[in-house]
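ugh ok fine here u go
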Amino acid sequence: MKLGIPILMYNGFFTKNRTPTGSNNISIQAFEEHLAYLHNNGYTCISLEDAETAYKRNQFDDKTFCITFDNGFYSQYKYAVPILDKYNWKATFFIPTLVIGERKRKKLKETYEFDLLPSDKMMDWKHLEQLIKAHHFVQSHGCFHHRDNLKNMDMIEFEVVESKHVLENVLGYEIEYFAFPFGAYNAAMIENLKQENYQMAFTNYPGILTPSTDIFRIPRISFTDEDTITTFKCKLSTGYASNSKAFYSKARASIYQLFFIKDLLNGILKRIS
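structure:
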């Protein structure tokens, strides 16, 4: 295994078997299989704070990992948390503040672009407070959840600043970590995160946290309903599902280190679309 920390990323969960579609929602049985494999093979689940410390000290253990959840889906609370409790493992939940407790499914789909299962819904503040009481962690996933949050500085500042203030005021502790909605970021957003005293930011691009990682563009390992335990093991050890996908992701990451190129490419793609 490459020296570093895999940061696992999950979205929604379903309980009944269905035909795989490539969705980021996976079966709760697959999630349970992931955690059983990690436990049975001697892995230790650590917090993002511990991962930050390991990164800054350049002290990486070869069998540590983190678990993160995006978007605040209720299925995470109902189905995944009891499995975490079984192993006494703690996770971080990245929450977009404007959708907390939102019940309008059409709005969730069209405005916030959620791939919400028919059986799922959004967590409310009571669920988040229960997560905190159980020693899990809640951090920022912005305010809105859509692909246009980088249009201008006002929108960027709202995503970064307002989400932090809302969560801090309700939960009562400092918000230090940010997950980019849809993995989208630019130089202005990262600079804003630094100004607001965030300590780390997370993409949805594949890879693992290593000594050479940019701490404000940390990759995470996501899963779809097409993944098997074999691809899970490959992603866990390398950060990628295959060698070809590893090459593509590393090439993209190298290009995107130059923010003006990334912003230029994103602008061209938007005009084309």
